[in-house]
Design brief:
about 240 residues, alpha+beta, Structural Genomics Hypothetical 15.5 Kd Protein In mrcA-pckA Intergenic Region, Chain A, Alpha-Beta Plaits, nine-stranded mixed beta sheet, three-stranded antiparallel beta sheet, 7 helices, 16 strands, about 25% strand
């Protein structure tokens, strides 16, 4: 017998959107099941014809979780009009999308998935998930610079949260953030009179970049996925 699951979960598992967003689409009358508008809480199977905003999504798709070593020059976007978009670069045969961003001139670890629920959980800033970077700047680092970076810098009409900063070389430092402000590290450095010449993300939460060649990707291991699910289990969907 075909397994029945709630409609919002079904839509999420196809990667179309999160469960919460699916509920909103159902409520707005933008979902049809076998030609009819469903009620919230309806259970469906892959034998049902499910159309979301005019798109047929009834195709069984196993959840995909990928760790990608984004090269410099590739854009963190699913917009295929961008000639440097990440999706065309990877060429994965199924619909996937990225979790978070790295600016075009940065390299390093970024997640991709077709699981809409986990995207929202990881992206919620209040969860405080760690992201680790190695950064090179244009001139010698001072103790004052390290202290100010770690205590917080005023950018984008706010002050960045305290973070861990450690000098690695004359012009290189490691930084661990729990925030995801736009171009955060570059902006922080600019305020303090430094220009970033190289930025590489080497870890997100429990997953490290180690072993993933430049421009290549791999699937999460079962242990990595289990650990991430534990880290985000208290997050709202």
């Amino acid at each position: 017998m075909e397994e029945l699951i709630r409609l919002n979960k079904f839509i999420s598992q196809t990667g179309y959107c999160s469960r919460r967003q699916a509920d909103a689409l159902i409520d707005a009358g933008k979902v049809k099941v076998n030609g009819k508008k469903p009620e919230l809480g309806l259970k469906v199977s892959y034998k049902d014809e499910i159309i979301v905003e005019g798109t047929l999504i009834t195709k069984k798709s196993e959840p995909v979780y990928m760790a990608f070593h984004k090269p410099v020059g590739v854009t963190s976007t699913t917009d295929l009009k961008d000639p440097d978009n990440m999706i065309d670069f990877i060429g994965y045969p199924e619909r996937i999308f990225h979790i978070g961003r790295l600016d075009k001139m940065s390299e390093g670890l970024i997640f991709l998935t077709n699981d809409g629920d986990i995207v929202n959980k990881i992206l919620r800033a209040e969860n405080g998930h760690e992201k680790e970077y190695i950064v090179t700047v244009d001139h010698a680092i001072t103790k004052e610079f390290l202290v100010k970076m770690s205590k917080g810098v005023k950018i984008l009409d706010t002050v960045t949260l305290p973070c861990v900063v450690e000098q690695m070389g004359k012009r290189t430092f490691k930084i661990i953030l729990t925030q995801g402000l736009n171009r955060q590290i570059r902006r922080m450095c600019e305020v303090l009179g430094y220009k970033v010449t190289k930025l590489k993300r080497i870890r997100i939460m429990n997953i490290k970049l180690d072993g993933i060649a430049y421009g290549q990707w791999r699937y999460f291991s079962k242990k990595e996925l289990n650990d991430i699910n534990k880290l985000v289990e208290t997050s709202q969907k």
